[in-house]
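Page header: ASSEMBLY MODEL / two components / 1009 residues total.
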Amino acid sequence: MTTAVAFDDRSHDFKASTLVAVWIGFAALAVASFALPESTVPAWMREVPPQWRLGLDTAISNFMKWLVNDATFGLFTFREATRSISDFLNVLLTAATAIFSTGILRGSGSTAVQLAPPLPWVAVVGIMAALGYRFGGIRLALLAGGAFLYLAVFGQWASAMTTLASIAIAVPLGVIGGILFGILGYRVPLARRIMEPVLDLMQTVPIFAYLIPILFLFGFGPVSALIATVIYAMPPMVRVTMTALESVPNEIVEYGTMSGTTRRQMLFKVMLPAARPQLLVGVNQVIMLSLNMVIIASMIGAGGLGYEVLTSLRRLDIGRGLEAGLAIVVLAIALDRLSQAYASRRLTVQGDGQRFAIALLAFTVIIYVLGLIFPAVAIYPASLKLSTAPWWGEAVKWINIHFFDTLDAIKSALLLNVLIPIKRFMVAQTWVLVTAALAFAGWRLGGARLSVLVAALALFIAFNGLWEKAMVSVYLVGISVIVASAIGIPLGILGGLSDRFWRVLEAVIDTLQTLPSFVYLIPVVMLFRVGDFTAMIAIVLYALAPAVRYTAHGIRNVQPTLIEAGTAAGCTPFQLLTKIRLPLATPIILLGINQTVMLALSMLVITALVGTRDLGQEVYIALTKADVGRGLVAGLCVAAIAIIADRLIQTAAKRLAAGQGGRTREP
Amino acid sequence: MTDTALTCRGVWKLYGPDPKGFLANRESWASDTDIKDAGYVTAVVDATLSVSRGEIFVIMGLSGSGKSTLVRCLSRLIEPSAGEVMFAGRDLLKATPKELIELRRHKMGMVFQHFALLPHLTVLDNVAFPLEIQGVPRKERETRAREMTALVGLKGREHNLPQELSGGQQQRVGIARSLATDPDIWFLDEPFSALDPLIRREMQNEFMRLQSVLHKTIVFITHDFDEAIRLADRIAIMRDGRIIQIGTPEELVLSPADDYVAEFTREAPRTKILSARAIVRAKRDGEMITGEISADSKVAEFAKEVEAATGAFAVRDADGELIGVVDRAALMSVLIETAEAS
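Prediction written out in full:
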């Protein structure tokens, strides 16, 4: 059974030799457009001339202007609607900020008078430790309490509490919104058919792209940041809710019907409670995604840790940036472990929980009162604060003094010999040729429908006049994915073969996946400054995990009987790997690479901060200018690339698996 | 039968493009192959049965025979493609959603194969749930739930969660819960099939004990013929969506409708199924009568007595009318048939 067989089942209408000839033809044309002098290729092939373009960006911008200036719902205008949403959220956010960070204030700005202080740090650390103990025993208590203690000791308390306050509002909103949309999708098939593609798109369009319309509608400030966070964190909750409701056992639904429940009772008293464990997994995802947004949200006005990181990064103040970045990581890990432990906890009888809540409340009140008497209980004493910032600064300085030449040499060598030639090659490719090649690949893999889809998406990019930037993006993502696969697949193979190695590896990639994408930029910028090389390393770090995980899973889950058959046939361990495990794992490894591509694309815009010149930069520029049309179109182009890659790779993986007569199960 | 609790007539369930239209136009097809060729899958075919008040009516069939679909048609958990289901003096299939909710709240109870307990509620709250749905005040519904929990022998476990109970205990909760509203009809869908054989036996006994107290009208689904015989007043045997035969266990054993039914009855414990009525012969002139037996008593109940005596026993029906005699030879023939079967 070879993999070639799987690809060739269409060859009855298409000879293998012709196929090879077509691909050689594409390759020759590609080399030609790179090697020949620029004047030989007509300019309209490189970039669609302005008079042919769709003008989607201006249309969107005009529409947004109309929305804000003229749109009305009869009783109230669109602007009044956005303003009342904004006011409502502002009330929530102010309340949460008062509890965690500022205390209750009268007046505003520098003249504000504090009427009551916020929660004392001792109380917050205590609450987290107590929750940890209740959900996961003494170890989780130490982890959660320790994490918050870290925030206090290392001087990140104030920022961390501002962040926590916005998370405390964003997560419930995201969860409730997600559940409501999920219920709608579950109940109304039409709503579901509309929502599915929108959710797909929301998860592929880079986050920055929808920061812009939010900025445009709600202005710069914490409320906009909150809205962006909720929109970003909600889609998985919608999906989880729909699947959770669907997977409630049929008997339970029948039981609900037989007890004579009304539709509402069925939903709120039977189905949602029965789906609780799965819904809690969704809650965990909302928390993690909200934290992932912390830094990005600070670009449109969120304060707190994200703002610290962003300003430090802009000033290249590595020490402070790293400290704040670490604080986000610590917060993320603590909240992740707490919510996971809560989700996987066995149910207990309710009365017990009430007693716990009362005890916790009593504890908080006592500490609060103590805090009014002893300031050290309320605010962590400045004299006991530690800062690692100078130390990090020194360390980076030291590395740069001693290794600058080496690092720079590595970077320059790779840039000059690998990155730049590839970039030139990619940029030289015309949209005509690439669209033709994609259409052909789509047709060979999945037939006419796939062919039309990928070609249409490629033309969408071309006719929005973003072809060259898109090719730069493809180059950056492509090379990052190659590097990530070159590192990730061998690691995955080792992990698949050795249990002990896998335990270590799994812990590492679990942690890598918990970290907000932005955090990867900090150390890389520290060492390599800005530019494509830095961007590539950051993307590789962020996108590595799925390549490792899927490979290990694929290697691990080859049927034991096949391994025994191989062993019985006298295979050496190396032959077992190359002749049995790897070929059988290929479809799953392909799916892993697909995930790597998706993550790499989502990291693309973030790396625009370090000066890449691709679609990411286009979005970023649009953000700074609040140019809705430009930003959204560039964002949609990134989504188009993502969808092309996703459909082609998934189809290839499915055909490979079908050729093997097996199924691909995702880990 | 005057005292009928539930009747269904000509109930069909087809899956396919337009089952209702297809069934309304019956001249266009005749055989099962016609149905199949038209693109329909049959789940229940033309089912007609009636359940008397206080009766245990067992629907028995192997997996895929349509028994679960049929009971769901009777309770309208599944919408039948055609037919009528008369319950509480009305056609259930014509009830509005609102009426249906009322009927289910007050007149129907159902027990499920995999218990279908709500995982987030305690035993007590699970049992009280149907009352909670109706808006019964907490105190009242908890009193009732405590009563029911005690009735099924779970006193002391009121505050446990379902996951902390064994399978048998969970089904006891399921039973208590379905009885909390004191329903007129009680559907049990393979209630003991997910349990170990020993526990199953225990639960069957428990079920019979409850029924002797409660006298409910019961529709009981099972794939286990022994269970059907142990529990049933009457059994309907289903195959490929059709009801092949309806009868008392004795009728099934004595005159199976076809080989399929005969296959099930062959190994059935005849002495516990057959009654004196089934094995009588005519009294010979001048024959000596040793004693008397009621026509409805089972062979196993009088076998010892008859075996010990030399003469024949007179068999009389409920009115005291002599319908024949039973002697050792008759007894022997029953035992021989049983032995041959196994």
